[in-house]
User: What shape does this take?
Amino acid sequence: MKYDTVIGLEVHCELKTKTKCFCGCKNNFGDEPNSNCCPVCLGFPGALPVLNKTAVEYAIMAGLAFNCSINNETVFERKNYFYPDLSKAYQISQLEKPLCVNGYVEINVNGTTKKIRLNRIHLEEDAGKLIHDGMGGTVVDYNRGGVPLIEIVTEPDIASADEAIAFLETLKNTIAYTGISDVKMEEGSLRCDVNLSVKPAGSNQLGTRTEMKNLNSFKAVFRAINYEQKRQIEEIEDGHEIVQETLRWDDALGESKSMRSKEDSQDYRYFPDPDLLPVYISNEEIAEIKSKLPILPNELKAKYVSYGLSDYDAGLLVETKNISDYFNEVLTHISNPKLVANFIINETMRKLKDDNTNKIDAKNLAELLLLIDKNEISSTAGKQVFEKMWETGKSAGELVEQLGLKQLNNDDEILKMVLEAISNFPQSVADYKNGKTSAIGFLVGQVMKNSKGKANPQKVSLMLKEELEK
Ligand code: ADP
Ligand code: MG
Ligand code: ZN
Assistant: This one.
């Protein structure tokens, strides 16, 4: 039997506010453990939370970036559960009236676009962090407790591991453009749970889902999805039922293990937090936040297309914020977007596949590209210089000098070589005159060889033509 895979993602993303969500403690990754804590975020009796306005604004920015409706009235609830990293024994979250509802994210997989609907984006606080010492002991760092998070919940619209990765990449990149989060999976500022079920192909009834937690890289998400869909199909084929449960993905073992049976929202005994008033947000306030939203990938792509770039190239440049920032910066020094785009796509992005950091700053790349633009070096020589720049960190001008790559543009010198080629290869000249115009290619090649690749090829070709037609 054939099966469809059905996936819904819950993505947690920490917001880059200066302070925590409901107190004045610093929101800083990597500080000394338990140094950014106070009675409010630790949940001491009688301590009162105060909502961070910037956290609300950032969550609304995310909603606007993902085409959500923003609720004018929003409420915070307590989600009650005991866990050692949650000293309050409840988490302030949103259930009934989240900040943002009904958006979508457009993804691109193998050339086709698909809309993944969002059910909601709500604001909540993060829990602390348990650190297992590997010898059976566990300690806890409460610095992260109370850090503002948005939870982005999709509808079950994702059908494969490839689609899930495309969704996460688009989401991560768009959030990076908004500037509301670092979106660093390795520091835990972006985390994701995978809900997955399978059903007979074409059936419109959803199967029972499992939820996988602890996925801390895109690669882990990809592997976990492929593992879990296979596991569920095998269970069903063996005549077993899928148990709705929470699984923990073990990336080292490459398998998922049961953590607990899945709780429903009523198990959390959600109730409105009596210490926090409902929040009212006017349409004017929403419009103002919208006006503060930085340029997003789609708009930026349209801008690049208006510079004369192809849709495809523009798409590649906006796929990573670091790259489009770099492209924009190079363009402040040189006004040839096509040349810059080609170089960044073919050279810089190729290098970045093996090397994590860009070794050439924008100004230095611009210097190299200006030399090509002004025909002072050929583009082939430019690529050679680029490689050396990447290796040595030296400037373009210095390397062109050192490698003796300056393009030969002097008319007299080129003419001399052109005439030499004409007298050395009478057969090609005769061929050309008899109508075999391709013979000129051979002659251009001879001049280029003679000049050790330095002659300006356009000039060589023009002059040869002129001489041959005399
Ligand atoms: P909870 O809050 O209990 O985890 P939700 O209803 O909010 O439950 O759903 C969480 C996620 O699970 C959503 O992304 C949703 O799209 C997804 N989901 C719900 N039902 C299924 C299913 N049968 N198969 C796969 N994913 C599902
Ligand atoms: Mg869930
Ligand atoms: Zn605090």
The two ends are 77 Å apart (CA to CA). The mean pLDDT is 93. The chain has three domains: 3-285, 295-403, 411-469. The first helix runs from residue 39 to 42.
